[in-house]
Amino acid sequence: MTYLGGCLCGRIHFEAEGPPIEVHYCHCSMCRRATGSAFAVLAWFDTGDVIWTRGRPRILRSSSMAERGFCSECGTPLLLRHDRDNRLALMVGAFDRAAELEPTRHDGVEARLPWADTGARLPERFTEEVLTRHEAA
Predict the structure, then answer these.
(1) Does the residue 78 lie in any domain?
(2) Model confidence over 52-89: pLDDT tens digits?
(3) What is the domain range of residue 105?
(4) N- to C-terminal Cα separation, the chain
(5) pLDDT (mean) for 107-128
(6) How far apart are CA 36 and CA 42, in angstroms?
(7) Which stretches within the chain are classed as H helix?
(8) Residue 137: inside a domain, yes or no?
């Protein structure tokens, strides 16, 4: 199965050959800062199973043990890669079919925000703005 995705502005597209090795939430402070959100949702693939089909992410050394990639045009966070690991994690929100990539565990729970859940019981509303892969191209 091939998963497609990319950044918000369409400058970067990728393909990941799956299924992913694992998918999980990460609540660590580094992932929170990198995503600007309460947690990251990461899908891990062997590095060789990910192809950048349009553009390439800008890489930033984010710690002594990892680097992160993002679109230098729109800022979309795209990847996390730990040193000495032949896998990389792609941000689930960057996938076209993100609903197919369901997390199976939580990491970085020592930094989990006490209110960080999906808020399933909160009021809901639909958005009028919808981005499709073709609109971003």
Answers:
(1) yes
(2) 999 999 999 999 999 999 999 999 999 999 999 999 99
(3) 2-113
(4) 22
(5) 87
(6) 14
(7) 29-35, 133-136
(8) no
Q: Which residues of 88-125 are buried (b: 16+ CB within 10 A; e: fewer)?
A: bbbbbbbbeeeeebebeeebbeeebeeebeeeeeeeee
**CATH code, domain carrying 53:** 2.170.150.70
Closest CA to 40 of 58, 23, 59, 27: 27
Domain-embedded: residue 15: yes
> What's the total number of domains in the chain?
1
**Rounded Cα gap, residues 96 and 83, in angstroms:** 27
The two three-digit tokens of residue 1, written as one number: 């199965």
The pTM of this model reads: 0.90
The 8-class DSSP code of residue 95 comes to B
Phi and psi at 89, nearest 5°, equal -105, 130
Nearest Cα neighbor of 35 from 110, 129, 108, 102 is: 108
Is 32 within a domain?
Answer: yes
Distance, CA of 46 to CA of 18 (rounded, Å): 9
Element (H, E) at 24: strand 22-26
At residue 28, what is the residue type?
C
